[in-house]
């Protein structure tokens, strides 16, 4: 909540506004709570960065897979088909208790409900452990126009992730996770707590601009509000990922697209801003370790298949992602052979 003993923030000067939002712990949540009537120019995205609603295909949706019997070859087949054809799917009966998922969402709300001077302690410049950081937009130092989102990012750690990777590897001809391939697939994990406050002009901005994740896999928990859109493979159209109670959304990231030599798809996705409700989401990014060199896995190359990607140091790949604002699917060009 904005402390009324303090002077109100200047909404007209973009530098002071950015300082209020980005550097003082208020975030876009603090700005939204001032009940501003219109969106400051700092957040107004060029048309091509906003979601074109005429491109949303409302009758389509990503697969929902019941994991209650994850050993069933039919379930395995659905997971791999979804990874090849959609790059995105939701899972139910995944074994993570609903109460745990509710607790995570509640903890996210509690964190963002802290006062700005408390949250400020988690800004990168103040954070005692550099493993935790509070950020507004994506990379506020680089983004010319800010995205309408605050997030707390923490490195973390999962039998569910291991099982999904085992299934996906099997189709690529890798029969087991071992000491060599397991750390490359899932050696480092990061969890983000995302907060998207009510926005005065949601149609003028984005919560998260179009991008693909740099992860191997992402496991996403979202609340009941909705707003995540996924690009349909080989198309200009977008599909909404509806919130389903108890569901986790899984998506393939660039690292797995590269390691599977393009067989599994890291799909572009974006989040719209919302004019009526606050939204939270909690993605866990399962990643290679920064020191890993990734490229198409030998076993994944079918006979005579050409490698579409070169070997890249994963930390270089991630650095490349964080050097620029969200810009669709172009990060992966960095690894093209
Ligand atoms: O909020 C969401 O639903 C997705 C967020 C996202 O795509 C990301 O943090 O990479
Ligand atoms: Fe993402």
TrEMBL record:
GO terms for molecular function: dioxygenase activity; metal ion binding; oxidoreductase activity, acting on paired donors, with incorporation or reduction of molecular oxygen. SUPFAM superfamilies: Clavaminate synthase-like. PROSITE patterns: FE2OG_OXY. InterPro entries: DIOX_N, IPNS-like_FE2OG_OXY, IPNS-like_sf, Oxoglu/Fe-dep_dioxygenase_dom. Keywords: Dioxygenase, Iron, Metal-binding, Oxidoreductase. Residues 180-288 form the Fe2OG dioxygenase domain. It comes from the Eukaryota. Belongs to the iron/ascorbate-dependent oxidoreductase family. This is Non-heme dioxygenase N-terminal domain-containing protein. It comes from Cynara cardunculus var. scolymus (Globe artichoke). The lineage of its organism: Eukaryota, Viridiplantae, Streptophyta, Embryophyta, Tracheophyta.
């Amino acid at each position: 909540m904005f402390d009324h003993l303090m002077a109100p923030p200047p909404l007209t000067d973009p530098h002071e506004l950015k300082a209020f939002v980005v550097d003082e712990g208020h975030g876009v949540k603090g700005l939204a709570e001032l009940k501003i009537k219109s969106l400051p120019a700092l957040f107004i995205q060029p048309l091509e960065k906003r979601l074109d609603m005429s491109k949303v295909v409302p009758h389509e949706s990503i697969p929902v897979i019941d994991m209650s019997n994850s050993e069933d070859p039919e379930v395995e087949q659905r997971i791999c088909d979804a990874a090849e054809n959609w790059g995105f799917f939701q899972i139910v009966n995944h074994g993570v208790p609903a109460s745990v998922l509710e607790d995570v969402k509640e903890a996210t709300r509690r964190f963002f409900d802290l006062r700005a001077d408390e949250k400020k302690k988690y800004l990168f410049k103040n954070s005692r452990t550099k493993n935790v950081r509070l950020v507004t937009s994506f990379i506020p130092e680089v983004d010319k126009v800010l995205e309408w989102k605050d997030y707390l990012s923490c490195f973390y750690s999962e039998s569910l992730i291991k099982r999904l990777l085992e299934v996906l590897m099997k189709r690529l001809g890798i029969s087991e996770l071992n000491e060599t391939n397991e750390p490359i697939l899932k050696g480092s994990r990061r969890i983000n707590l995302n907060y998207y406050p009510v926005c005065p002009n949601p149609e003028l901005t984005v919560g998260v601009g179009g991008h693909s994740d740099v992860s191997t896999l992402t496991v996403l928990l979202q609340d009941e509000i909705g707003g995540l859109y996924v690009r349909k493979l080989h198309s200009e159209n977008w599909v909404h990922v509806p919130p389903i109670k108890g569901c986790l959304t899984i998506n393939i990231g660039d690292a797995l697209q590269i390691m599977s030599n393009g067989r599994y798809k890291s799909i572009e996705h974006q989040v719209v801003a919302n004019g009526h409700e606050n939204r939270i989401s909690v993605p866990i990014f399962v990643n290679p370790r920064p020191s890993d060199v990734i490229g198409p896995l030998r076993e994944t190359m079918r006979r005579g298949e050409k490698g579409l990607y070169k070997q890249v140091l994963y930390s270089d790949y991630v650095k490349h992602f964080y050097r620029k604002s969200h810009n669709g699917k172009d990060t992966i060009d960095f690894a093209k052979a």
